[in-house]
Design a protein that fits this description.
The chain is α+β, with helices and mostly antiparallel strands. The chain folds into 3 domains: 286 residues, Beta-lactamase (3-Layer(aba) Sandwich); 138 residues, STAS domain (Transcription Regulator spoIIAA, 2-Layer Sandwich), CATH 3.30.750.24; 136 residues, Jelly Rolls (Sandwich), CATH 2.60.120.10. Helix content is 39%, strand content 18%. It is built from 20 helices and 22 strands. Strands 2-1-4-3-9-8-7 form a 7-stranded antiparallel sheet. Helix 15 links the parallel strand 12 and strand 13. Helix 4 packs across helix 8. The longest helix is centred in the C-terminal third of the chain and has 28 residues. The chain is elongated, with a radius of gyration of 35 Å. Bound molecules: 6-diazenyl-5-OXO-L-norleucine (DON). 6-diazenyl-5-OXO-L-norleucine (DON) binds next to loops.
Length: 623
């Protein structure tokens, strides 16, 4: 069953297909026949549940819920409450104060052991009862009722709905919980708790008696997996650093004296309760909950343990499984000679970029950028053979960037700046914290761009500025006769043909030819640049290619009798010479040699452009 929970809660859309739902259903069937174990009966009311109840629920950290079986049967949370009260104590008092009362060492003891660490005289961890009662004593509030209410509200934020206490189970435990009272008095005796031990133990009984369903526990787990934000309500239930602390303790102590076996066979931070629930978390990915009330000797659900082992192995969830993901931050790397920008350059510039293009390199990064990914990126840049004058770091496909990765890339930028090399960050979402809008063109470290093409063009320009012959004239403008399409024709032919052109000047940003236009003439660029654009699915306009003085366009529409498939704009102030379609056609009958000479030149230029486009494609792996 797939349950699509709407963001605001409410009705649930259920579906029964899909590979994840099928795997869960298989695991459910596989474990259903196991009826070993016994109901907890030391709290009389716990023995009153339906022993065959069985539910498996998985919630992703973006709120997708899958499940099989009894997803909406209520049962008491019991010890699964412990990490959540510990979390609230950490939030109320701060980790330093909590650490003076509760240790974080695995105890290897049963959950209800009446013991303190002999050295520190503190409970060994907050997952055993002693630590949990100490945590309950640390919750802030006006009075006892308010302190419990804050606990209830906190659990509700994790679950994404209002949870309630089960009065009968509470009364049953309150009547019989002498062992926990003994622990409470011990804690008061050694000064771990300052308040009335009966109040602390009563609060602990109450929190254990909060009713949840398998679906609630999956959502609570998914909230931890989602770094403390409930994926359904989007409400933050816990700050990220405290999530890390809570998951750490769940890993080392959540399964009590079975913690080692659990970590080796399941490999997920988890918590079990004698109510029959188990909750497990794969940080960043999913939360899992199982409900089946027959327990093993450790007080954990028999089927629950089995299901978690099976899901972990079938879905590959072990959190210590070694992947290469963190190391493969560099998706691909190439030089501007291999994949130039979409600005078509003239022959002189192309020659310089062919010779020095490997001085400007582009690194496309992807995945989460953590320490290992940043280290391998910095190392790859530093080990670049030859001189480096400009570097494009394209971060658009990067997910999370850790603070250490930000620092390492900042340092890299500074180091490169000291050698005179600049970095163009392609980082429209400011993942490195440099705002595109606040960029200072004079910053020696470089600039921030919203797309790779603009960053690449900027780097090409840096290389060109360094390697152009002294005295080079940056800006070359042509007359019609000087334009390469005509320049080398015999004088008479050239003069005759030039007369047929009309010249036009357009302001920057002006539309020259709208997409869909029929044959509009042969356009020679005499001065400035034109830009062919296309719109992406989100309606953002991108550059397909820019052409500069000495280049031409419009001939394909003329020769193939096709319409323009892109808008053509003036990228700068631009001066054009236009041969209207009727005159272009007339040349065939009136001056066939001139037309042939013109077409030869246009064909050569078109092939040069096609070559540049193919090079750019192959550098990106043909994608
Ligand atoms: O302290 C107790 O006895 C119960 N209220 C909770 C114990 C528990 O769930 C142990 N976990 N497996």
């Amino acid at each position: 069953m797939v349950l699509n929970l709407p963001a605001t809660g409410g009705s649930v859309v259920a579906a029964t297909d899909g590979v994840v739902a099928r795997i869960i259903a298989e695991v459910y069937e596989q474990c259903r026949s196991d009826t070993s174990g016994t109901l907890a009966d030391y709290i009389p009311e716990l023995a009153a549940v339906q022993p065959d109840s069985f539910g498996i629920c998985l919630a992703t950290s973006d709120g997708q819920v899958y499940g099989s079986g009894d997803l909406d049967t209520a049962f008491t949370i019991q010890s699964i409450s412990k990490p959540f009260t510990y979390a609230l104590a950490l939030a109320d008092r701060g980790p330093a104060e909590v650490a003076t009362r509760i240790d974080v060492e695995p105890s290897g003891e049963p959950f209800n052991e009446i013991s303190l660490d002999p050295e520190t005289q503190r409970p060994r961890n907050p997952m055993i009862n002693a630590g949990a009662i100490a945590a309950a004593a640390l919750i802030d509030g006006r009075d006892a009722a308010d302190r419990f209410e804050r606990i209830r509200r906190s659990y509700s934020r994790f679950a994404g709905r209002e949870l309630r206490m089960n009065e009968d189970v509470y009364a049953s435990e309150a009547r019989t919980g002498y062992r926990n009272r003994a622990i409470g008095y011990l804690l008061r005796g050694v000064g771990v708790i300052d308040i009335d031990p009966d109040e602390a133990v009563d609060r602990y009984f109450r929190q254990c008696s909060i009713d949840v369903t398998c679906r609630d526990l999956a959502m609570m787990a998914a909230t931890l997996a989602n770094n403390g934000v409930n994926p359904m309500t989007r409400e933050r239930a816990l700050s990220a650093p405290l999530v890390e602390q809570v998951l750490s303790i769940m890993t080392t102590s959540g399964m009590y004296d079975a913690a080692g076996d659990w970590v080796t066979t399941v490999g997920l931070p988890a918590k079990s309760g004698v109510g029959g629930g188990i909750l497990a978390v794969l940080p960043g990915q999913i939360g899992i909950a199982v409900y089946s009330p027959r327990l093993d000797a450790h007080g954990s659900s028999v089927r629950g343990v089995k299901v978690c082992r099976e899901l972990s192995s079938r879905l590959g969830l072990h959190f210590l499984h070694v992947t290469r993901a963190a190391h493969t931050a560099i998706r691909t790397a190439y030089t501007v000679a291999e994949a130039p920008s979409r600005l078509r350059r003239d022959a002189d510039e192309l020659a310089i970029l062919r010779q020095y293009g490997d001085h400007a390199r582009i690194f496309e990064l992807h995945g989460d950028l953590l320490f290992a990914g940043a280290e391998s990126t910095v190392r790859a840049v530093e080990q670049t053979s030859g001189e480096l004058e400009a570097l494009v770091l394209d971060l658009r496909e990067v997910g999370d960037v850790s603070p250490i990765a930000v620092r390492m890339l900042d340092d890299l930028q500074r180091e490169l700046a000291a050698t005179g090399a600049k970095v163009a960050l392609v980082d429209p979402d400011s993942k490195l914290g440099h705002m595109v809008s606040s960029l200072d063109p004079a910053d020696p470290r470089g600039r921030v761009f919203i797309d790779r093409d603009a960053a690449t063009e900027w780097c090409e320009q840096l290389v060109l500025d360094r390697h152009r012959a002294p005295g080079h004239r940056e800006h070359s403008a042509f007359t019609v006769e000087q334009h390469p399409a005509l320049a080398e024709m015999p004088d008479d032919d050239r003069r005759t043909l030039a007369k047929e052109f009309e010249t036009r000047t357009l302001a920057r940003g002006e539309l020259i030819v709208p997409r869909g236009s029929p044959r509009a003439g042969l356009f020679l660029i005499l001065d400035g640049r034109v830009r062919f654009t296309f719109d992406d699915r989100a309606g953002r306009r991108h550059r397909l290619v820019s052409l500069s003085a000495g280049m031409s366009f419009g001939e394909i529409a003329m020769l193939a009798d096709a319409t323009f498939s892109n808008d053509v704009y003036a990228e700068t102030t631009v001066r054009l010479a236009v041969l209207p379609p009727d005159k272009f056609d007339l040349l065939t009958s009136q001056a066939p040699e001139i037309k042939l000479a013109l077409l030869e030149r246009l064909a050569a230029a078109a092939y040069a452009q096609a070559d540049a486009a193919v090079r750019a494609l192959t550098a990106h792996g043909g994608a």
